[in-house]
Design goal:
320 residues, alpha+beta, eight-stranded antiparallel beta sheet, five-stranded antiparallel beta sheet, 5 helices, 37% helix
C-alpha cells in the first residue's frame, strides 16, 4: 500500500513538474514571439529609413541633374537668342546715328549722361538737331533756295565720303519731312514741336510757322564741341538691338589757343584739360582714340524694332 502511495506521489510530482515546464515553455514562447516581432518591426523601420534615404538621394540627384540641365539649357538658349553683329554692320551704323548726341556751341544734356536717358528726358531742341543733322534728304524732299540778286539756286547736290548724294548750301523742306524722319529715329509715338534749330553761330535751320517749312542756311562756322565715340560691340536679342561704345566730349577752352576740356558725359565736370594742335591733326577721332582711349566712358544704347523691321532709339545708359 505504501509502495503504491509512493508511486502515486511520484506521478503527481512528475506531472506537476512537466506542467511547470510546459507552462514555462509557453511563457518563453510568448516572449520569443514578442522579441521576434519587435526585431522584425525594428528591421522594417531600418529598412524603411534606408529606403527613404535612397529615395531622397535619388530625388536630390535628379534635382541636381535637372538644375544643371536647366542652367545649361538657359545658357544655350541665351547664346542662341543673341545674334552678334559686326561693329561696322550696316544696321548698326544706321541705328547708331539715331542716338541724340549732336551739339552746337554750348554743352547741353544729350543721351550721354551719368544715368539712363530716354526720349522724354531730352529737350525738344536736342532731338530736332540730331534728326536734322542725320537726315539723308532725297531730291523730292528739298526745295531750292534762290538768290534774289543773282536769280540762281543756292542749293547744291554733292557726294559724301560714302559716295551718296547729299544736299548742301541753302535749302528748305516741309515740316512733314522732319516729322517723318523723327519717327524713324525715335519711334511712331514721338511728338516734336516745330521750332528754329540753332546749330552753331552761323549755321541754323529756321522754322516758318506760317508756311510750315524749315529753311537751312550755312554761314561756314563750325562747332566748338567735338563728341568722339567708338563702337565696341553690338548684338540683337529678340526684337531689341544693343550697341555698346566708348565716348568722350572735347570742348574748346577759353583759357588759351589749342587748349581743350575733356568730358566723360554731356553733364559731367571737366575730366581733364589738354593741349591739342588741331592744325597738325588730320583726324580728331583717331587722335583721341590713340591718346585718350583709357579715359573714354562706356555706354549701352538700346533700340527697338518697329513694324517695318527697322530699329529706333529707346535709351542710353552707362554700361555696367
Amino acid at each position: 500500500m505504501r509502495k503504491n502511495n509512493i508511486k502515486l506521489v511520484k506521478k503527481v510530482v512528475l506531472s506537476v513538474m512537466l506542467t511547470g515546464v510546459l507552462i514555462s515553455c509557453v511563457g518563453c514562447g510568448d516572449k520569443i514571439s514578442e522579441r521576434t516581432s519587435v526585431n522584425n518591426e525594428q528591421q522594417t523601420n531600418v529598412n524603411g529609413i534606408e529606403d527613404n534615404a535612397d529615395t531622397k538621394n535619388n530625388m536630390d540627384n535628379e534635382n541636381s541633374d535637372n538644375t544643371e540641365n536647366s542652367v545649361e539649357n538657359a545658357d544655350k538658349e541665351e547664346a542662341k537668342e543673341q545674334e552678334i553683329l559686326a561693329t561696322d554692320d550696316e544696321m548698326v551704323v544706321k541705328a547708331y546715328k539715331y542716338i541724340p548726341t549732336v551739339y552746337y556751341n554750348e554743352i547741353m544734356p544729350t543721351a550721354y549722361q551719368d544715368k539712363k536717358v530716354e526720349i522724354n528726358d531730352l529737350s525738344n531742341q536736342v532731338k530736332l538737331i540730331n534728326v536734322f543733322k542725320n537726315i539723308k534728304f532725297k531730291r523730292d524732299e528739298i526745295t531750292d533756295v534762290i538768290d534774289p540778286g543773282l536769280n540762281e539756286s543756292m542749293t547744291f547736290w554733292v557726294k559724301d565720303e560714302e559716295g551718296n548724294e547729299c544736299v548742301t548750301g541753302w535749302y528748305s523742306f516741309d515740316k512733314e519731312v522732319m516729322h517723318k524722319y523723327s519717327k524713324e529715329f525715335y519711334g511712331d509715338d514721338i511728338m516734336l514741336t516745330d521750332e528754329t534749330i540753332k546749330i552753331s553761330w552761323a549755321e541754323s535751320c529756321t522754322y516758318n510757322d506760317e508756311t510750315g517749312t524749315y529753311r537751312y542756311s550755312d554761314g561756314g562756322a563750325g562747332s566748338l564741341l567735338t563728341p568722339v565715340s567708338n563702337i565696341t560691340k553690338a548684338y540683337i536679342e529678340e526684337d531689341m538691338l544693343y550697341i555698346f561704345d566708348k565716348y568722350l566730349l572735347i570742348s574748346e577752352s577759353n583759357d588759351a589757343p589749342n587748349k581743350y576740356d575733356i568730358y566723360s558725359s554731356s553733364v559731367s565736370d571737366v575730366m581733364e584739360k589738354v593741349e591739342i594742335n588741331m592744325e597738325s591733326i588730320s583726324d580728331i577721332e583717331d587722335y583721341v582714340m590713340g591718346n585718350y582711349k583709357e579715359k573714354m566712358a562706356e555706354y549701352k544704347h538700346t533700340f527697338k524694332k518697329n513694324d517695318n523691321g527697322e530699329y529706333y532709339w529707346v535709351s542710353t545708359e552707362p554700361a555696367e
